[in-house]
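fyi for ur records
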Amino acid sequence: MRCTILELIFGVLAVGDDGKVVDWKPFPGKPAEIADRLEKLSRGEVLDEVFTLVERLKAKGFNLFVFERESSARAVRDELGVKTLVETPSQAGRMFRRDLASKAVELGFVKNRDEYLRLVREALDLLARRVIRERSGRGDIYVIQAVHALDELNKTINLFYSRLREWYGLYFPELSDAIEEPEEYFKVVAEIGWREDMDRESLSKLGLREKSVKSILRALKTSIGAEVDRSDIEEIRRVAEAALQLFKLRDRLERYLEKRVREVAPNLCGLAGPILAAKLIAQAGGLEALSKMPASTVQVLGAEKALFRALRTGSKPPKHGVIFQHPLVRQSPRRLRGKVSRILAAKLAIAARIDAFTGEDMSERLKEELKQRVAEVLQQR
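which gave:
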């Protein structure tokens, strides 16, 4: 005889081919107990109630059991030595799930529909709180937030730089061409400000590169900037001082991110570097999500718009996403970047799985294998 085993929110049911319940094992009627069972099911575990029910049914002569989850079917088959099938979703499951409240009342699990709905609501609320608490405590969540904060900080610095170039440019427009780095620009404006106070000695004290110092001194001789009031320059300097604080904050955030990524994903960090590893985790939505992605998906993370555009228009798909920031990809010849990206993505996918499920640090071995494989590809030139 055959029956279908249904793992529902209020218990485990055995349903015969005629659609009637032949036996069942209810869960305890407390929200916390129900939440415990649902949490185990969400993790792919097999409930004790399933084994108890199948043993009873086996004694009654049932010899074939249909399950909706592969994990349950495999565990029961191995543990109890019975025949199992997997049908997802099962015909009995579709029928019963149309109105679970009525079935719960009919089986005597609750007295009425309102009691069932209250019990389910409280159990699901408890389960949601547990999931949120568990996920909030994972290290990769902090990595994701730090990456987003770093990206937004870089955007803020660029906004300050753009604004100050326009504002201070009214007084000394040539400075933006003389200096390439925004931080150096902010230092000159914040620490000196006035053109007449700029000389080799004062500029060198700021730690500027010799190239920047020479460019500024040349620009001073031919500046066409307008004369401004002292109050104007003082306000501009205050804004520049605030912008310099953002650079200090960015440096501190990068150090924190490097430390956190090494703790959370040592293999990914060893292969990609802390910043790129953090960006990959953020793009995937977490280390576990990244570990479940195939290498082909890891390869184009961050290039989703280009990928969907290629699918829509039939144009060439992107060869790489954020992994282009890796030196091995960026420094490779253009025609070989696709191959190098595939090799790198494959190793990154392996590293993410090791970090997510074992935590063993195998970064040196993976790094050597990666370098060797990339070297073989580059020799094909």
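The radius of gyration is 32 Å. thats all i got for now
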